[in-house]
Design brief:
- There is one protein chain.
- With 278 residues, the chain is α/β, with parallel strands linked by helices.
- 45% of the residues lie in helices and 19% in strands.
- It has an eight-stranded parallel β-barrel, surrounded by six helices.
- The chain is globular.
């Protein structure tokens, strides 16, 4: 299995960022990824510095907002970044999900427009980069984006969290819905010579001896799920390191997830889980 962490560079000094990246490497993460949001430091400089600060992990983008990047310019940046990283880049793309960011950038937010932009970007990158393209991850939840990922990407990332207008943000789905999403990807990728690697993005990790109590504190991520459903989702972790490690193993068998990515806030706690899985 592989393990990644999305590190957040918000008002971060060079020394603080280098220290954070080296700590992720020491904890055993295989991929250090950077996000693409307007309130954070830019993804490409922070990714390059992460590569300079570390030796072993791949450096990923989780994920670039397709609407923020023009194909020819992104192709140039990807080639440059991968070359300066000595081939350690894992390129993650998605549609973006924060309406306020699209409004700030003067971009349309509709689901169809965002999906079409991602489709065009992937097609153009394949054309422009040909065999020079690094491994591609596409993350999402809807039919159209996951079908694109299943057909074109080396890695499909399941966010398990569609945008919910009633909340004005994303919210987690239950395990049954995520299983259906996995089935959709497997059907769409059936004709490929090699199936894509399946990744899951975990929103939070809580180390506790009381799983139910720990998950109750995470209810904001899935306000309409029951406690039993929260205990069953692969997108939240609560328990002792050994219990969470067992959950990761079960999720690998049940969903096919062989690559787990956690958020910055979970880096230390999930690091203890990694120690049980090596």
């Amino acid at each position: 299995m592989r393990f990644g962490v999305v590190l957040i560079a918000e008002d971060c000094s060079r020394n603080a960022w280098v220290t954070r990246c080296r700590r992720a490497e020491a904890l055993g993460y295989d991929v250090i990824a950077v996000p693409d949001h307007l309130n954070l430091l830019a993804p490409f400089p922070t990714a390059l510095l992460a590569a300079e600060a570390t030796e072993r992990p791949l450096i990923g983008t989780y994920v670039l907002n397709a609407s923020f990047h023009r194909p020819a310019l992104l192709a140039r940046d990807v080639v440059t970044l991968d070359r300066l990283m000595d081939g350690r880049l894992e390129l993650g793309l998605g549609t973006g999900y924060m309406r306020a960011e699209f409004e700030a950038a003067g971009l349309p937010f509709g689901a169809g427009a965002r999906a079409r932009t991602l489709e065009r970007l992937v097609a153009e990158l394949d054309r422009l980069l040909d065999r020079k393209r690094p491994p591609l991850m596409i993350g999402g939840h809807g039919d159209r984006v996951l079908a694109l990922a299943a057909r074109t990407a080396e890695i499909v990332s399941f966010t398990g969290a569609p945008y919910r207008p009633e909340y004005g943000r994303t919210a987690l789905v239950d395990a049954a819905t995520l299983l259906e999403r996995v089935a959709h990807v497997r059907a769409e990728s059936a004709g490929r010579a090699a199936p894509p690697e399946l990744n899951v993005l975990s929103k939070a990790t809580v180390l506790t001896r009381d799983r139910r109590a720990g998950l109750e504190g995470l209810r904001r991520y899935a306000p309409d799920l029951t406690t039993a459903q929260l205990l069953d989702v692969p997108t939240l972790f609560a328990g002792t390191p050994a219990q969470i490690a067992e959950q990761v193993r079960r999720d690998r068998e049940r969903f096919g997830f062989t690559y787990v990515t956690v958020m910055d806030s979970a880096m230390e706690d999930f690091g203890e889980v990694i120690a049980h899985l090596r």
